[in-house]
Amino acid sequence: MLQEQRFELIRRHLEEHGSLAVQDLIQLLGVSRETVRRDLRQMEQKGLLTKVHGGAVLKQVGEEPSYEVRTVSHRAEKQAIGRAALSLIAPGDTIYLDAGTTMLEFAKVLRPAGSLTVFTNSITVAATLAATSAKVYVTGGLLRDGEMSLSGAIANHVTENFFVDTAFISAGGITIEHGVTDYHVEEAELRRIIVERAARAVVLADHSKFGVTAFTRVVPLTAVDVIVTDAGLPEEETEAICALGVEVIRGEVSG
To answer: Which Gene3D superfamilies match (predicted)?
Structure first.
């Protein structure tokens, strides 16, 4: 059984019972005590449950960590993802860049050698690219404080009239069962619109997003062409995603 499958099974049983003992999980999963403890530790780090003495209790899907926290969390991995994603852009491309801290790291290393058109709903991404030769369009819409992202009816209406070669989107969580999910309904809707209008959909997400189900669904994994992540994603999860026809690129942390 893959680790992600164990995570989903643990979560389902926690939703049914509210709590589970380590011994119950050993029998349920058919794995060692150490494997159960490691899974619980990693699930707690992902915000999926709370460890207690002898077991775990369910932690409900809540608010996304603040922008300030996410800016410093897994920063080296996000920088590695940004560098790896550069291989997916060619001179003359028209691309969409989503909001988010991983996308910002991508924008920081994006220095187009030729013509490049960028469409974005992120004020910070647009400001970062203002110093480059890229032609930048912004969606407009309702500004989300702190995140500096735009969404809502105006953003949706504008985006429906654009078509791009590649849409680079963010994710609050990624699982085989639920696909790409996010914490914000309005931004999830905007992502669905741009994915439909993109010749290629690429998700940028560090390894901590895998095995996590956020509040609302964005798209199934079958709607994604490429996932760019870091080397922290286990090989078994990589293989399971590739089996769905999704290419996985793993960026290496430098130094």
So the answer is: 3.40.50.1360, Winged helix-like DNA-binding domain superfamily/Winged helix DNA-binding domain
Task: Convert the chain into a string of H (helix), E (strand) and C (coil).
Answer: CCHHHHHHHHHHHHHHHCEEEHHHHHHHHCCCHHHHHHHHHHHHHCCCEEEECCEEEECCCCCCCCHHHHHHCCHHHHHHHHHHHHHHCCCCCEEEECCCHHHHHHHHHCCCCCCCEEEECEHHHHHHHCCCCCEEEECCCEEECCCCEEECHHHHHHHCCCCEEEEEECCCEEECCCEEEECCHHHHHHHHHHHHCEEEEEEECCHHHECCCCCEEEECHHHCCEEEEECCCCHHHHHHHHCCCCEEEEECCCC
CATH 1.10.10.10 fits 3-58, yes or no: yes
Average the pLDDT over 86-100 and give the result: 96
The predicted pLDDT at position 51 comes to 80
Q: Measured on CA atoms in the order 203, 205, 207, 212, is the torsion positive or negative? A: negative
State the Cα angle at 39 between 34 and 41, rounded to 5°.
95
Average the pLDDT over 52-76 and give the result: 72
Domain ranges of the chain: 3-58, 68-251
Given pLDDT bands bounded at 50, 70 and 90, which one contains residue 107?
A: very high
Structure confidence at residue 63 as a pLDDT band (50, 70, 90): low
- Enumerate residues 6+ apart whose C-beta is below 8 A from 90: none
- CATH number at 68-251: 3.40.50.1360
Mean pLDDT of 152-158: 97
Residue found by looking up tokens 């001179």 in the block: 91
Q: Find the length of the chain.
A: 255
